[in-house]
Amino acid sequence: ILLLIRNPKDVATSFYYFTSGVPTLPSYETWDDFFIAFMTNKMAWGSYFQYLSEWNKYADAENVMAITYEELKENRVLGVKNIAAFLGISLTETEVQSVVERSSFQSMKKSSQKTHGAFGEILFRKGNVSDWKNLFSEDQNEKMDKAFEEHMGGTKLGKKLKYEVYCKA
After folding, report:
1. Residue 10, pLDDT score
2. Taking the model in full, what pTM does it have?
3. Distances (CA, A) of 61 to 109, 125, 136, 160
4. Where are the alpha helices (DSSP H) in the chain?
5. Which residues are in the Sulfotransferase domain (predicted)?
């Protein structure tokens, strides 16, 4: 099982824009309204912290590899090689480069009309790391950090995210 996890701040940011583009999901008049709903577990698919907490139970299983979006963005070549090794797949350097090129956000966004139809425009917005800095107030940033520590502090997945997101930033 390949478990892709992401900075909760960027998850919130992406989901805010996602809900704005999907008419069947609850929408929010402002970012502040969305942030309150996100932090009080009132999202259509539940709490991201609860999701991470549930997966944390399996983080040490040998058939689970947790990898962060941030580490894949930082070094896709290493990420592809690590994933291939975990899955027991031997790749040539040419195959690694092909996967790296095809799995770039820009490449996936470019082909999203073919792969996801009109929904591709909603799914593939920016793909950036730290886009949350464009929305979060200082107070919201502090609240998210506190919630992260309460829910994920000391857990394996929490340590992985904290290292990738906070220590490398």
Report:
1. 92
2. 0.85
3. 33, 33, 35, 15
4. 8-21, 31-39, 48-56, 69-74, 76-87, 93-102, 105-110, 112-116, 120-123, 138-152, 156-162
5. 1-155
